[in-house]
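In response to reviewer comment 3 from the previous cycle, which asked for concrete evidence that the modeling workflow produces usable outputs, we include below a single protein chain processed end to end. The sequence was submitted unchanged, and the resulting structure tokens are shown without manual editing.
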Amino acid sequence: MTDPASAPRISVVVPVKNEAPNVLPLVEEIERACTPLGAFELIYVDDGSTDDTADVVLKARQTRPWLRLVKHEASCGQSAAVRTGVHAARGGIIVTLDGDGQNDPAFIPKLVAPLDDPATGLVAGQRVGRKGAAKRWQSRIANGVRGRVLKDGTRDTGCGLKAFRRDIYLRLPYFDALHRFMPALVKREGYAIAHVDVVDRHRHAGQSKYGLFDRLWVGILDLAGVWWLIRRRRRVPVAQEIL
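The workflow returned the following structure tokens.
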């Protein structure tokens, strides 16, 4: 069992697949952003990479004791990789970001700060200045439909930059694309959602692993399921034994 006194406050979870050239630059940026925040750990979840992503992480770990690597034998998707990282995490606060360098780790302190309020369960990054007309179009459609149906008050749920309480995440129902519906589900648990505008960058190297199908159409059934879950939410009784 992990000693609570030695556990870091913050666990940064980065899901990756075939992102070897992007590992070291991002690790260095995360180190600079998180060091002022106190004890932290960085968990890379290698989602079945076929390049040398894992080797690059292991090399970087030689001089960084707070860097950890968890590897999937086969690719299971982004939501599965995030879930693996959260389960492995020792910190009570989880920060997630994509492994391609488009999410700027410099925003991590701003994401973590609102969680000092115990009523806040999730802080969602919301991208401004998105790169690529196709991505902007896809996001506007997907976020527009989701927002009208779920009324989660979040402009952009697809941004990988998020900070949330580990215990709340572990209460949520798990399904593929969970990361895109977290604001609605955390709100369902009775917690407030905060938002931080973040700058979208060009990826350092490589190509996107997620296309139009993943961003939009694959989420329609999930959207219906989350809508149903919200409608079926009932008050959780507060009970105490009478002695």
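The mean pLDDT is 83. We consider this sufficient to address the reviewer's concern, and the full set will be provided in the supplementary archive.
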